[in-house]
Amino acid sequence: MKIFTNLSNLENVKASSIVLFCYEDDFINDPVIKKIESIFIGSIKHLFESGEFTGKLNQTVVLHTGSSILADRIILAGLGDKKKVNDDCFRQASGTISRLPAIISSSSVAFYPNNETGRKTVAAIIEGFLLGSFIIDEFKSDAYKKNLSLPVLMICARSKKEATSFDKGIEIGQIIAEGVILARRLAADPGNFLTPQKFASRASALAKKYNFGCDILDETKIKAEKMGALLAVAQGSELPPRVVVVKHLGGKKGGQPIVLVGKGITFDTGGISLKKPLEMDGMKGDMSGGGIVLSTVVTAARLGLKQNIIGIIPLAENMPSGRAIKPGDIVTSRKGKTIEILNTDAEGRLILSDALDYANKFNPKAVIDIATLTGATKYILGYAGIPFVGNNDKLIELIRAASDRCGELVWPLPIWDEHRGMVKSSIADLKNSAGPYSGTITASAFLENFIGSWPWAHIDIACVDIEKKGRPYIPKGQTGIGLRLLVELLTEWKKV
Ligand code: BES
Ligand code: MN
Ligand code: ZN
Questions:
Q1: Which one of 373, 432, 441 would you pick to mutate in the ligand 1 pocket, going by the greatest count of ligand atoms within 8 A of its CB?
Q2: Are residues 186 and 88 in the same domain?
Q3: Pairwise CA distance, residues 32 & 113, whole Å
Q4: Which of 130, 222, 262, 434 is deepest in the core (most CB within 10 A)?
Q5: Could you tell me the CATH number of the domain that includes residue 331?
Q6: How many CA atoms lie less than 13 Å away from 405 in the CB half-sphere?
Q7: Does residue 345 share a domain with residue 223?
Q8: Which of 190, 188, 60, 169 is closest to 125 using CA atoms?
Q9: Max Cα separation, the chain?
Q10: Domain containing 451: what range?
């Protein structure tokens, strides 16, 4: 898709559809709306007074111009109450618009800004549109492919100066949306396509394309590193494990990096503690955290972020088999701590424990891990947001502030000594499962045993990784949620 700025005024915009954003109730006084009211001779006032269109968030109406101006249609997009509108409202409105039949049958769409539109709002509009219209059709045979791809998208600017700033917004919005889409695709790729080895070769191909570093630890190197917890999870599968290390070194030469760690279980059957069949297919996305870490490094490289960023992604498939780990088995982690495996389905914390310990190699200034770790998250925030933990108030605050700006909602949880006690084993140092209660926190308390003396945060994206109903810019399926949060955090990073 081509995306660019357009300097024509409303009457002369050459596009199949023009989109105008409208504040609830207030839009009727907007000068641009007043101008088009003359084209439609009072019909907008009528739409408003009849209550058909009031400008509520995600409300839309399509008006055909009957060739009174160059564009075929004007589409009104509600933003909601002007006092509450932020960039996420533009992102939502744009996502809603992206799937309208009127848009799908357009060959070009122009967004006409209002006075509040700046560079960041433009980025949000682009993100909303690209993310809202995203579909996966590469697994369909040709006969079933839907072609939703619109050839041309424009953002109208009122001056050269505005166009320059909007151009930057378009570039950033497109890179970020493509980052989310990469994360979604990786998560949606089935277990028979995206194996640990395939994930690793995707990472090295992306590293070549976008010019960042990539090292891959194969089984021999993983053994040499004594990553006993990762090897234990992988041993039940025919597929060998991998650890992918990706590096975007955009900061000071030799400066301490921010390390991101992402869970990369390419399929989680639960192992010998087998999951119930219902919705087990969703476990192809159990490498979502790893996919987000890889996509974040790709995005950081494309945006040229001035930070040293290292991503560590431990990859394995969790399978039941004659060689698989069993409940009661005891394994030794890279750090030397012994772990009693009570539930083979609590495999994420096992592979993360070795990856977190491996992070020490890079002398990090902070480490953030992201994982589809516990189904218990749905009893905390439901599907509405992401619970996370942290051991550093400044880092917690940075994550909360990034969340506020990007619209991916988070809320911090504590780890108390009672939770720390819950993951102690009577026979080994730790046990990998403490039962269902406070499951998200006890998983975090387990991970905490493997961190170094650095600021750390753990983000549990289980449950937000898959969208069941469809939201304005998040169609049904794998969401890529977490990518924009991390990119926003890294872009606005402050010392912790
Ligand atoms: N990958 C799952 C967590 C998950 C569940 C992600 C639902 C997305 C949706 C993880 O490996 C797991 O199975 N966790 C167990 C932990 C338990 C055995 C302590 C869980 O949540 O039930
Ligand atoms: Mn599991
Ligand atoms: Zn899992």
A1: 373
A2: no
A3: 10
A4: 262
A5: 3.40.630.10
A6: 18
A7: yes
A8: 169
A9: 81
A10: 181-491
Q: Are 151 and 65 in a shared domain?
A: yes
Q: Would the CB of 345 count as within 6 Å of ligand 1?
A: yes
Q: Is the domain of 304 the same as that of 428? A: yes
Give distance in angstroms: CA of 440 to centre of ligand 1.
9
Contact 406, 485 (CB under 8 A): yes
- Is residue 375 lining ligand 1, measured as CB closer than 6 Å? yes
Average pLDDT over residues 232-255: 98
pLDDT, residue 173, reads 98
CA distance 21 to 24: 10
**Shared-domain flag, residues 139 and 193:** no
- Domain boundary among the residues 156, 190, 206 is at 156
Give per-residue pLDDT as tens, 138-163: 999 988 887 667 789 999 999 999 99
Q: What is the pTM of this model?
A: 0.97
Of all protein residues, the one whose alpha carbon is nearest to atom 3 of ligand 1 is 374
Output the CA torsion sign for 5, 10, 16, 17. Answer: positive
Distance 147 CA to ligand 2 centre (A): 36
Domain annotation covers residue 165: no
Does 103 reside within a domain? yes
Measured in Å, residue 394 CA sits from the centre of ligand 1 at 29
Is residue 376 a part of any domain in this protein? Answer: yes
Whole-number pLDDT of residue 322: 98
Ligand 1 atom closest to residue 376's alpha carbon, by position in its atom list: 21
Amino acid at 131: L
Q: Does residue 313 form part of some domain?
A: yes
Which one of the listed residues 73, 202, 334, 349 is annotated catalytic? 349
Q: What is the pLDDT of residue 435?
A: 87
Whether 463 lines ligand 1, by a CB cut-off of 6 Å, is yes
349 labelled catalytic = yes
Catalytic residue among 45, 82, 275, 400: 275
Residue 385 CA to ligand 1 centre (angstroms): 17
**How does pLDDT run across 426-441, given as a tens digit for each residue?**
999 999 999 889 999 9
202 and 329 part of one domain: yes
